[in-house]
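Quick one: structure for this chain?
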Amino acid sequence: MTTPPSAFPDVEKLVVDVLKADPALAGVTVAAGAPAGFDGTQSAVLVNRRGGAWIGDLHVDMPLIEFEVYGPSKTAAHVLANAARRALLATIGKQLGANNVVHDVEEQDGPRWMPDYLYRGANRYLCVIRLSLSVF
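Got it. Here's what it folds into:
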């Protein structure tokens, strides 16, 4: 069995780059963290790695990616959640960054409406997607 790399790829940055390049998300804040002044009512997709697994023999990282998707209305947030999902699901077979290839993308949960207790006026959907990402 091979050992994992000393550091996993920055999958949050890779996914943020994918979403930022998608025309359906033009004008939407896409980031790994909430920007200054964020109150949950703006159009935003926040990308977070929520664990995953290293498959040593295959040299594959299988991160769980969570999208927290916000919009000015529940309907707008739902539309953005679907756009973000579609963009990431479309990466199968593509190279991300200099050293990663996406072998599979599998939805684990979503989009799921979930009130946000940090931002009281927020319209938020959550999605969780697992990537199978070769690291070379």
